[in-house]
Amino acid sequence: MFKNTTNMDELNTWPHPGIDTLTKAIHRLNDQMPNHQMFGTKVTQPDGSKKYEWMTVKEVVETSKYLAAGIAHKNLIPEVEAEDRQWRFLGL
């Protein structure tokens, strides 16, 4: 039987075997539930009410690929050398 031993300031995670990065987790989610709502934006309707418009997991993955390709094409991420390798880093 599971016993919750955490408080509100802790986060328990139980990763799936082999899923050790956020990228791998998102791709696994895309494989399992591509049409699941992932990112929502609150929009105001013409009558003044508000609702969320959602991007699915598949749309988020596709958009991130397009963004990465565009940034690389424009050469907006300089290469840095570290650990005897060339790297490109971008923080959003």
Features of the shown structure:
single chain, 92 residues, alpha+beta, two-stranded antiparallel sheet
State the major sheet: 2 strands, antiparallel
Uncertain regions: pLDDT < 50 for 5+ in a row? none
Q: Could you give the order of strands across the largest sheet?
A: 1-2
The share of residues in extended strands comes to 25-35%
How much helical structure, as a percent, in the residues?
25-40%
Number of strands: 4
**Structural class from helices and strands?**
alpha+beta
Looking at the chains present, what oligomeric state does this protein adopt?
single chain
Please work out how many helical segments DSSP would assign. 2
Structural account:
This protein is α+β, with helices and mostly antiparallel strands and 92 residues long. Helix content is 30%, strand content 25%. The chain has a domain of 36 residues. The strands form 2 sheets. The protein has a two-stranded antiparallel sheet. The chain is extended, with a radius of gyration of 19 Å.
Q: TL;DR of this structure?
A:
The protein has helices at residues 22-32, 57-73, and strands at residues 37-44, 50-56, 79-82, 85-88.
Note the topology:
Elements: H1 22-32, E1 37-44, E2 50-56, H2 57-73, E3 79-82, E4 85-88
Antiparallel strand pairs: 1-2, 3-4
